[in-house]
Amino acid sequence: MEELYTKVLSDPIFKCIGQAADELQVDAYVIGGFVRDFFLGRGTPKDIDIVAVGSGITLAKKVASKLKGQPRVKVFKNFGTAMLKYQGWEVEFVGARKESYQRDSRKPIVENGTLEDDQNRRDFTINALAIGLNAHIFGELLDPFNGLKDVSAKIIRTPLEPSITYSDDPLRMLRAIRFATQLNFEIELRSLQAISANKDRISIISKERIVDEIHKIVMTPKPSVGFRLLHETDLLHFILPELVALQGIEEIEGQRHKDNFWHTLEVVDNIARATDNLWLRWAALLHDIGKAPTKKFHKKIGWTFHGHEFVGSKMVYKLFKRLRMPLNEKMKFVQKMVLLSSRPIILSENHVTDSAVRRLIFDAGEDIDDLMTLCEADITTKNPKKQRKYLNNFRRVREKIVAVEERDRIRNFQPPISGEEIMHTFNLRPSKEIGIIKDAIKEAILEGEIPNEHDAAHEFMLIKGKELGLKQHI
Ligand code: CTP
Question: What is the pLDDT along the chain (474 residues), one digit of tens a residue?
Fold first, then answer.
């Protein structure tokens, strides 16, 4: 006797789909993420996947004709799917199919199939749960692979032999790792082995889809779970070799450096507790990538990573380009965070002077708070005394930032004297002297020699002009 899961179908839209399916005399089921998330208690997602044992497109059109306002049906003929939006729902319709894949492509050869064929071709048992919508099967769960058991046991398992499922669509290797991270599930051992064995097949997946999954892992509460799995299966090597290069501890003459890969993962987990900003989380992931190419051992001082922030920020561009990530202000933000990532630390280790704080605010601008968040996440010492000390240092830096900013307004620094004014004062045409004077004014403000105000800057300009042998015109 099948159990009835009518609670998941409480919204009238499901009755409507069922009636439309009855009229067309095809069976229809809700399947995939919607059902999975219901059983996981993750609330009700806005996306509903419907599978029809017949034409998904015809069913979509019939459903639309029965709904208030008759929503538009978007048909994707090539995929044999159709989609409509209704009262906040996004409903996707597909005909049940049987798929067979070729080795060099994600594009399958598709034939019509039964519900079971369709469930077989899905990625994981927890995503293959289907609930009937027609009157004669309304609320019946069809769970041929014990997906519900896997939901309770928190297991990611494939309906078919894992190597078939992953080889058919290698994106699923990343989906497995992403679901394991998002849901706090284990990947079944056979599956994990199949991922390792098929890892090279990731090369047929588009960069955009890969990055989509990485973003989702980065946005989980504990991204290290996913990155550890990516590392263990060696997929990370294909996606972010810069991180793999950080792994390992070298020892020379009894001196060791920390393992920057595992350190990075801790930093990412730390920052995930502090922010939902995707790009700040990416900055945490990449903040040390310059350490692999800059690592050196010096007999006197031990291990150094001189200039790793600068090298790292340059690597960010190449990495974004390779992964077809946006080369826009998001990338610039990540570069900036990487470039400045050590500044607050250096600052907090010394006496925190006003001028050092002003320079930091000037360089970080609007992103100063994010930079401080990154630096706090960067504290991974296991020594509670040291941890308290570092956090206290950063607290002092933060307080000083607030105080200096209140007084000097450096954050969105606008030169108090414009180039126009300099030209006018000394009767100059555009020339390098203008740049020299502007720069000198900025330096004087950052050094605290003059306040960030027009009159003081004007005075300073006159002195500087005189030094340069310029004559005052007015
Ligand atoms: N699916 C699959 N293989 C894929 C992608 C999707 O078998 N590579 C199937 C799964 O049954 C999945 C359904 O298609 O549940 C819908 O896919 P999608 O909307 O991408 O994912 P969801 O499972 O709904 O989850 P999320 O929205 O978190 O990605």
Answer: 356 788 788 899 999 999 999 999 999 999 999 999 999 988 788 999 999 999 999 999 999 999 999 999 999 998 889 999 999 999 999 999 987 666 666 666 778 899 999 999 999 999 999 999 999 999 999 999 999 999 999 999 999 999 999 988 999 999 999 999 999 999 999 999 999 999 999 999 999 999 999 999 999 999 999 999 999 999 999 999 999 999 999 888 888 888 999 999 999 999 999 999 999 999 999 999 999 999 999 888 888 999 999 999 999 999 999 999 999 999 999 999 999 999 988 877 777 788 889 999 999 999 999 999 999 999 999 999 999 999 998 998 999 999 888 888 888 888 899 999 999 999 999 999 999 999 999 999 998 899 999 999 999 999 999 999 998 876
Q: Which residues contact 196 (CB under 8 A, 6 or more apart)?
A: 232, 233, 234
User: Token pair of 252, please?
Assistant: 């020379």
Q: What secondary structure does DSSP assign to 322-333, as a single string? A: HTT---SHHHHH
Nearest by Cα to 141 from 125, 162, 161: 125
Which atom of ligand 1 sits closest to the CA of residue 175?
8
Residue 33 CA, ligand 1 centroid: distance in Å: 6
CA–centroid distance, 172 to ligand 1, in Å, is 9
Q: Ligand 1: distance of its center to the CA of 119 in Å?
A: 12
Residues sharing a CB contact under 8 Å with residue 261, sequence separation 6 or more, in sequence order: 231, 243, 244, 246, 247, 248
Rounded Cα gap, residues 115 and 53, in angstroms: 6
- Matching residue, tokens 């006797």: 1
Kindly give the distance from the C-alpha atom of residue 323 to the centroid of ligand 1, in angstroms, as a whole number.
22
The pTM score is: 0.90
The ligand 1 site (C-beta within 6 Å) comprises 32-33, 47, 49, 122-123, 127, 169, 171-172, 175
Residue nearest to atom 29 of ligand 1 (CA): 33
Rounded to the nearest angstrom, the distance between the alpha carbon of 165 and the centre of ligand 1 is 13
Question: Which residue's CA is the nearest one to ligand 1's atom 12?
Answer: 32
Nearest CA to ligand 1 atom 27: 33
